[in-house]
Structures
1.
Amino acid sequence: MSGSMTTQIKNQKSKIENHSIVVETQDLTKIYGDGDGVRALDGVNLIIRAGEFVAVMGPSGSGKSTLLNLLGALDRPTRGICAVAGQDLAKVRDLDRFRSKAVGFVFQLHNLIPTLTSVENVEVPLQEENLSDKVRRERALSLLKLVGLEARVHFLPSQLSGGQRQRVAIARALANQPAIILADEPTGNLDSKSTDEIMDLLRQLNRERATTFIVVTHNPAVARAADRIVTVRDGKITRDEKIENVYLEDLREFKQSALGHAILDGAVPAELNGIGLDQVAGQVKEVLEKV
Ligand SMILES: Nc1ncnc2c1ncn2[C@@H]1O[C@H](COP(=O)(O)OP(=O)(O)O)[C@@H](O)[C@H]1O
Ligand SMILES: [Mg+2]
């Protein structure tokens, strides 16, 4: 990450403390099937404030998508409270309207309609609005400009690269100016260059439009661009850290591991000498003693 980006993120972070809560869950639980079904999400308490950029990490099957689906009202919890954009989702009468107004979705597979052009895809969520065709078209075009796709507005998804398709999906997610964007592995199918570009775009939108982002990712580089990393395991939040504390926590965890203890005891396992750990063990020991 560039120095200037780090500074910008820090500046933004200091403002977040005072911001209103956009996501609040209490004991949020989802069990698939009945009785001893799969406990996909298990008693999650989470607070996210306006303007935050949160990465959600965790192994496959840990409940990340389930969490996002509940936040976006794509699914209903078995138990617990889920409030998004000031509304208790259990009490929302018109969930379709809530979904199209309050949240924007970006998925790993873009879900664009293959027979519609970029601009027509972005217009889809605007259909519900009482807009003239002309105004709707203007809005969609300005959104595509915002995501850097002004030269591709009349292309079909099949005529776009993966990164470009994801830009259309982001423009579509932004169409109704939602309080929150939920992105489930939005860079999962992209090469590293497109991944960087999409992440830069999401961060830029987060800063300039103060939209809150919750982004599920397996990619540590993507997570590093966030303000905060929430780690899910077996349906529970096991770590929740501001980005500046994440690596310190990693070091503390390492200190508690078998290898960490061995290094602190001055006893690097001989089987690791082949990779040169013995040569730096003294320095690593010094570092571990400080954390
Ligand atoms: N519709 C479903 N029916 C039954 N089990 C499901 C369903 N969706 C997810 N699960 C299970 O819930 C757990 C969490 O899944 P998911 O939230 O998709 O994990 P992740 O996104 O972290 O990979 C997994 O064990 C998965 O198999
Ligand atoms: Mg998933």
2.
Amino acid sequence: MKIKPRVSLCPGKLLLLPHNCLIDMKENYRKEELFSPEVIEKLSYHYREILSILGEDPTREGLLKTPERVAKAMAFLTQGYDADPKEILLSAKFKEEYRQMVIVKDIELYSLCEHHMLPFYGKAHVAYIPNGYITGLSKIARVVEAFARRLQVQERLTVQIRDCIQEALNPMGVAVVIEASHMCMQMRGVQKQNSATTTSAFTGVFLSQMRTREEFIHLIGSRLR
Ligand SMILES: [Zn+2]
């Protein structure tokens, strides 16, 4: 199933592409059943131990299937290790002379911070300016997904997405902005409920031309300065 974005050609230059994440989710859910039973069994065993150590009774009814559920959830949340993000882009790389900014904004992302293994979630905005090649639009979202479904820090996630697109398509520039809330800050530690973290990474003309960068920031409609 392919994403059918509403494409609006703004005055001669811009492709604005609202992102629909539902399709990726479906693909991922299909994949959930493919996890190795051996891995799930090992994880379940350890989660049962963890429940006991935390003072719970893993044999009480409500918790009987919890270790297995957690194991499957964690396997799902870290399935990005099995993905090859660069290959995702190369699998849909097309020759095209379009040389204006392509933006995929508001890509939902859910990841796990590698320090606490607690979720961080938010949105990614990705742009590139083609240099002879474009990629399928849904592939950009899938690259975000492939890197997000691992233990991460937001800074590295941002740079990995940028570098992957730069290496696979060799465009004139790549821009990535991620805005995310971190549960490890909200539920524990400083317990700041409303703080969001913004990271950005640029290459090529997004670095060298301030106007191009500003145009991108303006188009993602963000509160960024
Ligand atoms: Zn953390």
